[in-house]
Amino acid sequence: MVKVTVSGVTKEYETGITYGEVSKDFKDNCKYDIILAKQGAKLIELNKKIKTDCEIEFLDISDPNGHKTYVRGVNLLLLDAFYEVCKDMPLKNVFIKYMIGDSCYCEAEGIEITDEILKKVEEKMHELVKKDIPFEKRVVSTQEASDIFEKHKMYDKKKLFEYRRVSTANIYSLDGFEDYYYGYMPSGSGLLKYFTIEKYDNGFMVNMPNQKTPTEVKNHVPSPKLFKTLQEAGNWGKVVNVRTVGALNEIVANGGASNLILVQEALQEKKIAQIAEKIAGDASKKFVMIAGPSSSGKTSFSHRLSIQLRANGLVPHPIAVDNYFVEREDNPKDEQGNYDYECLEAVDRELFNRQLQELLDGKEVVIPTFNFVTGHKEYGKETKKLGENDVLVIEGIHCLNPKLTEHLPDENKFKIYISALTQLNIDEHNRIPTTDGRLIRRIVRDARTRGTSAKDTIARWPSVRRGEEQNICPFQEEADVMFNSALVYELACLKVYAEPLLFGIDKSEPEYQEAKRLLKFLDYFVPVPSEGVPFNSLLREFIGGSCFNV
């Protein structure tokens, strides 16, 4: 017998009972269907058996880890249904490409996507949910996994396993369909009740609930500019012939990293030059507004853009919105009573708009510098005045929010959204979340420039993400152009810096589970040395050695 304690209640069970069976006795502990278990800092799938006394916590889809598990489960459900519906069609593969909001964009190779096909796939998925079929998990050798996916013609997966250092892999199957997933999976199809499918562009969207409303599914709200940028990222991947981690590893292993770096950097420089030419082509544009989430490379981008603007005959002047913070005593506070530096009300908008209008009118102004120690703006003697060819390059999280510059003429603004939208997938069915790439960037940079541990960076990340969701993401479609700062090779390079920092997190810490997940993720990559990274690369903002003051 084993003693299991949940929320202070202890019950006895036969040794070998599964966490899922125990969860039935504690289903009222969670508001929604239980999808994972947690023991200390360790996450556990519900199909696993309990062999010793333990204290556990159950998680539903409203938990971040539970939500990720739900999404992976829906992806397996989708693929099983899709291949079944299209078994007599010339379907070659289904690609799970990227998340946009709560929707996952997918494409199918070999067939034309029709509403009829998608209707049949969705019906099949609901049929599998009603049957509540267990997700079977088996551990096989890496070589056996490679052979399995060659048999299934999943060649991206096969290539991935050729470069793995671990000796085993977890294979999941549903109703006979086998696949591999990066992360924990649900216990069965019965938990995956909420989803819809709709045709979109050349593929389709799988709409899923979010953490806040786990039983509600909304139709996809189009973000055409973001979608176009993600497609462009995919096209960049095609240019360098790198679509998946396995393909990247193959190039690195064959000595092609240097050429890959140069081509990728050239693609970014070309894009920056095009943006600069667009700005220079319109003499009315005096305010270049740059916004983007944390660790997107805004500072390096603004420097490189400024160089290209100079090459087009303009004279750029950098301005940071952070210098326009309200006085510390006037700064709003959040629900915990801490100063909220990320809300729009933390910016002295009246002063910001007035000074920019004065500059537009040809007047001289003294731009403040915010002293973060005293919490007050300071004014020097240096004045700023806009000449005929002068432009202000303004960086801040609210730069795309119309309310920040509501008193300035729209025709004088040029808005840029920058984010690290990775064009790389782990394999055809496992995407790399853009947030993972940015988190790893931030871990490396914070350790180098601020002496911050990986543990502390991970602990603060949910708060950072909440701020982004509130203040940046809702306004991304306001941008005139979007710039993708992700580099196809960067994670293979960041791996060298991030792994020692992540290994430094103790198993007893709450952040250990996230560190473990990121370490497993980085293990997929063959490392790329940083020596070949150009000194003006956006990546240098994080790993060091930049020619810019970042």
Provide a brief overview of the structure:
The chain has 550 residues and is an alpha/beta fold.
What does this structure look like?
The protein has 550 residues and is α/β, with parallel strands linked by helices. It folds into three domains: 2-60, Beta-grasp domain (Ubiquitin-like (UB roll)); 66-220, Threonyl-tRNA Synthetase, Chain A, domain 2, CATH 3.30.980; 226-543, Rossmann fold (3-Layer(aba) Sandwich). It is built from 15 helices and 21 strands. It has a five-stranded mixed beta sheet with strand order 2-1-5-3-4. Helix 2 (64-85) packs across helix 3, helix 4 (142-151) runs antiparallel to helix 5 and helix 11 (434-449) packs across helix 13 (490-503).
For this entry, give a set of tags:
single chain, alpha/beta, Ubiquitin-like (UB roll), Rossmann fold, five-stranded mixed beta sheet, 21 strands
CATH fold category name of the largest domain: Rossmann fold
**Percent helix range:** 25-40%
Mean pLDDT over all positions: 94
How many helices?
Answer: 15
| Name given to the CATH homologous superfamily of the largest domain | P-loop containing nucleotide triphosphate hydrolases
Question: What topology, given as strand order, has the largest sheet?
Answer: 2-1-5-3-4
The main sheet comes to: 5 strands, mixed
| Morphology call | globular
Share of residues in strands: 15-25%
